[in-house]
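Notes to self after the call with IL:
- keep both proteins in one doc
- input above output, always
- annotate only the second one for now

Protein 1:
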Amino acid sequence: MNRHFGRATLCGLAALAAVACAEEKAAGGSVPRLIPVKDFARMDEVLGAKLSPDGEMLGMVTFGEDRRMVTLLELASGKAQSVRLGNVASSKLDYWYFKQVDDFDWAGDERVIIYSGVPATDSTGGVSSADKRAENWIGLSGDSRRRQQFSGSADNLIQDVVLHVFDSRTALMQQAPSDKEWLHPNVVEMDIRTGEYRQVEKNPGDVNFWLADEKGMLRVALVAENGLLQVRDRELQGGAWRERPDVKLRPGETQVLAVRAQQLYFSQLGEDGRWALYAYDLSAQPTQARLVFADPEYDVASAATLRIGGQRLPALFFEHGTGRLLGVRYVADGPKQHWFDAGMAEIQQKLDAVFPDQVSIVVDTDAAGRNLLVFSSSAKSPGAFFLLNQETWKMKPVASVRRWVNPQEAAEMFPIALKARDGLPLHGYLTLPPGAGQTRLPLVVMVHDGPGVRDVWGYDATVQFIANRGYAVLQVNYRGSPGYGERFRRSGRDGNFGAIVDDVVDATRWVVQRRIADPQRIAIMGLGLGGYAALSAMGRSPELYRCGVGVGALCDWQDLARRKDSPEYARMYAFWMQALDLAEGSASARSLIDNSPVARAKEIQGPILLMHSETDQVVPVAQAQAMKAALKRERKAVELKTFDLVGHGYLRGDPGEEFLTDIARFLASNLRPRPPAAAAAK
């Protein structure tokens, strides 16, 4: 990880501008071409990759034919085959959706286990399996299993939880004994070639989750009872379970991650309010928790997995076979990989020398640890996968996320740091358009969705599109964003939703004060909860923003609460209540209502573009319709653009091309950026 995340602070903007100037000068000082919209709208071709245990095959989650699938590449010959999943009908909607691959794992050298879902619906795709030739597909759980006939078993109650994969034949999975006991699963041994299974561990009636070790032995049982998280373990397969009162885990403040080599790894809030990695040695009794790793500024391993470059990776990196912990992945300003193993740390140093100014992550290794799969990316490069042979130090490219992107044409993203009006430290990112200078730029403030979401240093196609059209882009991780400790996360709740809006406004003024942005040409756009903050900011500080874009924006909390008992809205209302830690009639709920964009319609001055999916299952399209009606009543300029058969988020593919074109048109009509040298591209 040779990329140094030096932030532009109150005293550091001159250095930031100097860096950008030097990069432009090195590139010849030319104004970049206007890249076609379709190049930004296209889906990533590769969304993750893993090596087979023998190192002879590369499995990838790829995108093609309008869906995600698993592609299996024979590294020696270059021959590739793909597993495409079928369609599934939504229980809420009257049409069919593509079943999409979420992730996969190798099952020995001969098969893969595939995890699938159905975007924009409440359906589950289930778990399935196929061989390395992308043949002999078999459904193991969920909708995938229900499409096949298995006699004499409650097939639809197999959970989508794989505890351990033994080889190309067998895996451990959780199974619910009945609908009423879904929270207390049994454990079955599944033949992943045929779908037949046998029970290997019956739930005593109170175990909520099981953990298997590196050998596949059920080692730990977790019981949530009376507000406590209790641990049971055993030393031998089939042995008696024993209570472990010495293993103390705090519910709500603990994330159990894995059990390997007698160590129970978990993340927990430390005394400084940040998540850190801990372990219990289960071979000792009594045992005490030990701190494995903590970062003084950022959360570590607050979840079992994290996304880096669009791919889902486990937070912990273990050695094949032994279960020895080699490293931990987490996100600071950008992705980081900390190594405990000296050999891997040395490899990291060499990778950083090979890929300067990029983040290089060791994604996977073969079983022998001889071949490494490396992913290298930056804010200007979407990233590529390389196969590294440790013995020869030969490296060859094997896959690219967006092979059509030329990093030399991309805009640079700079981490920044500032303080909110109440003194709370805020982090964010500033992307400067190439060839446009560094002062008095038209600015687009881009507010991320939430909660549980934050912006990260790295390639973002939407940011790059806006920058290529001549705008600077500001992103801020407002209070409530994850990764900066529990105090920061909680400060965005507890009746304080107005402070989220203030953070966005403060970050905007911070850029204006440093003369990077032209104060007369500032737009703001946001997605979901970010759309809530963006549109509210236009009402709270109408003099600051010329126009605004709300994408799938939460606009009227009171209306959503009013409709909570209807089948169409009940699930969405429940999601937001839980996600935002809300209670009926609480100060937080009142703050959410008071700061809703519809409550600010009268104060909003600039034109608004609302963009919403008619099949959004996170924020109903009625929210955009209510916002449009409120603005119309106040005789404000507003446009509503709806899309069909897409979900919640910034759009990609064919709808994405239309989506980005509409945004570019709206921004250009209100901010008038200096155009790149080339003629406008479609």
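Protein 2 (the one to annotate):
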Amino acid sequence: MGTSIKLIKIILVLFVFLILAGKPVLSDDTCMFQVSADDVPPNIVLLLDNGAEMENIIWHAGYNNSFDYTPAAGTDTITWGDGSTTNGFLNQNGYAVVKVATGKYYIRPILADLKPDPDNGNGFFSATNEITINSRSITLPFEPSSIKVDGIIDKAARFRYSKNYLNWLFYGAYAGDGSDLPVQSRFYFAKKAIFTVAELSQRQAYFGIYSFSANAMGASNVQPLGFVYDAAGIVNPNFVNNINNLGSVYYSPLAEGLASLGGYYASPKSDTLPAAVGEYCQKSFVIVITSGVSSEDQAVAAGSAPASFSDYDNDGEGQISLTDGTTTTLVTIPTNINGSTYLDDVAYYLYTHDVAGYQSGFQNVTTYTIGFMGNAESNAYLKNASNNGNGNLNLYNTSDVEYGKYHFEAQNPDNLAGVLLDAINAILSKTSSFTAPVVPVTRTTSGNQIYLAFFKPGESNFWEGNVTKFGLSSDAQILDADGIAATWPNGAMKEDATPYWGTIDWADTSKTNGIDNSARNIYTYLGLDNELTHFSNSFSVSELTPALLTTYDDSTGPLELINITGTFSIGNVLTGSDSGAAATISLVNASDISYSGRTGFFRTGEVVTNGSGASGTIANSGTTEVINYIRGADVHDEDEDNNTSENRAIICGDPLHSEPVVVNYGDL
């Protein structure tokens, strides 16, 4: 009878251990449980604005764009080809330096259609690109380089100069002759940022690139989705060529371009191209890199998603009303010729719709934005698009912690690579952190509450689990802690749904349900008291002595659950001997490995050997480690901080093939 009781005890301990330690996936387990970037890399498509704004030349370090350099009245005027004069540069659309022929250079104003004025009579003539105005002679770069600089070809069609920048050069504090002026466009630095980030984040995501086409109808594919570096760390030469061969165009149909990406994600596999969303658990993102000024952006191209423009977010068009909780500011969204303000509507549509209908489940597209050398108004517009594209519909309160959370800004061209990397890291962090799978593993209801079990697989034996509590409405709709619907119409969980609590927070003592592992109340019947919660039944090192954690071989006596320390050949059977008794454990790994910490049933002090003659000594610390591990301690020092008594990062193991059971304390 005593033997049976002890066997029950050890089976109970091992059962708890298995529940917390995870297990291999079974044959009927599917992609729905592969929820991290390590398992299924996210799709990230960059919508790179290659319109007129990207042709702006990079400013000299001494220039301050926030200051107005328009010269005072009476300053030396500029005489144009038609004989008219202006007090400095005044054209709102800026200027381009154009070489017409040898010995013929013109500073031409940019027209409302974003093209340089073709009439030489409206330009400022010079025999060379050394321009003399206000008694200053400055050599102005007029054409981006067509050769590689640091492996990058600029390939902007021209350099554009803002009126304010030219006024600074000829009327402001600039004292040089032009030899120290930057000779790259914004477009060059955008390409440089993409190359840099692709190298730093290689094989962590599938990358693709879209840019605007010359016909101003949406955007076209520059780089198909996929890894741009191979497993050996070698960049795909097609990726390099695709970026370097990309040129600039006149217009930036931002909303049309984002809708084109929606169409790309919505397209199923064809004879020539794979489907953009390869797995139904795969997450899909867009990062829009732009100054935020739309042009020729009135109607979506064929094959887009959505198929037409509409005020999907119901906020009206053209203006944004921002507030900090006290003051309200009305922001007019800037546009160029035939521009629109539908970008935030398309972002909202892509976030709230099942875009990839060819995959089961719910696959939306999440939009991030990067304001590259834009102004306050254009960045406010991009922030709203990113808010809508992440479920924060029309969030105009600038004091809200979620406001602009998915928008990034680079006012300096050298900062763009770092900002783009920040955006990608935010995506990777989001897809690598513990999030709900497409659908819950199991669910249990109790009154107006529902308990959902999720898990995240890993490469180790431990798979992370999370049991969460949500609300349940009278019509059986799952509600989050804020009373908002926690699921999409097809039943898939929303990523941003906030539970009342989750067991994932057990390890975080700052959370309401967080607790240090040493203070957890865990009990198992040990035979001394019938009251389960009596201290003698505590699942702790003090009560669970090594003598209690044993199993019996009737002929040889007890064998304790302890550690094996040593190096052994894999595939052999370890055999321990003590006074003629023997116990065995099989090794199943694929290569030789040090087996420090491996658990099995052996006697303390036994010498373990194998067929190759290797040996190791059994240590007796295994009991304490197993108990503390089950309690949630970081016994293996997973965070490598030399503290094995603290909570490990995730305490709850996966609940696969199990189901939550509700215990109503009112009935106890």
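Annotation: Residues 1-37, 433-441, 551-621 have pLDDT under 50 and may be disordered. The chain is about 15% helix and 20% strand.
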